[in-house]
Amino acid sequence: MSSRAPWWMYIVAASFLGLFALRIYGLSPLYSGPEPMGFRFDISTSTPTVLSVNPNGIGQRAGLRAGDHLVAVNGVNVRRLVEWDMAEMTFEVGRPMPLVIERDGRRVELSVILERRTGNLLLSPLPWLLAATDLLTLVLALFVAFRRPNDFMARIGAWFLATAAIFMFPPVPGIAPAWRHLPAALGALLWIAQVSGSVFPAIFFTFFAIFPRPLFHRRWIWGVVWAPSLLVTAAFFPMQYALVYQQPSAAPEPFLSVPISFAVFGCYVLGGLVVLVMNYRRLRDINERR
């Protein structure tokens, strides 16, 4: 059997490297993305509440006040942090952005015009440390994949590591416009890694279910294992696509709720840890257990 990697592995690797590079670019001073909105809010309530507004910041200039309740940002309904992150990725410099709030029991629509930021997006060292860790994880994934390109276990392990690097990357405000302005072929290529990140919970479970020995052998079992993750991905993909290529207000509401998707994610993580223990207990060789 040839030790050369098949052609499709190079395409997949290019997708992961491209998406990672785009996100690093979005965090760096090389990208003139939007500056922060300039306010803090509490996401723990049913309607996120503005706690404070920075003097002379974008939020204050738009008329935002402490005590306002966020309803929608740039066409995205905001009820949880994940939805704020989705809205933030659509921020674009110089384009008026609607900000719907609730104030004194009335809905008010403000208009925000974002300005270009200066310097790094994230001054805290923690996100950059996380990004560096993700980079090392991605490099390790590529090393494993191309070191043993025809080994099924190595491929799954590399896929797990590469997707973990994408999945754990900190959110990047304004990344959607940068993605949208890429050449069409390059922009389409990045969706391989993006969709892989969406099914990461299933990859997590799969990795621990086959390492070091497969726990399941019947194909229908794998179909059952993957069905919930594929359903959640199908529910949210149209919205992800619209946020990148269309106006955020055109993004359709997913047919599954965010709490349901979180519940599915939790089941995969818990299931992955359970099969890890089960697989470990099946090992007889003391060297394998190590």
UniProtKB/TrEMBL annotation:
The keyword Transmembrane applies. Residues 32-105 form the PDZ domain. InterPro entries: PDZ (IPR001478), PDZ_6 (IPR041489), PDZ_sf (IPR036034). Keywords: Membrane, Transmembrane, Transmembrane helix. The keyword Transmembrane helix applies. Signal peptide: none annotated. The chain crosses the membrane at residues 7-26, 126-146, 158-176, 188-211, 220-243, 255-280. This is PDZ domain-containing protein. It comes from Candidatus Acidiferrum panamense. The lineage of its organism: Bacteria, Pseudomonadati, Acidobacteriota, Terriglobia, Candidatus Acidiferrales.
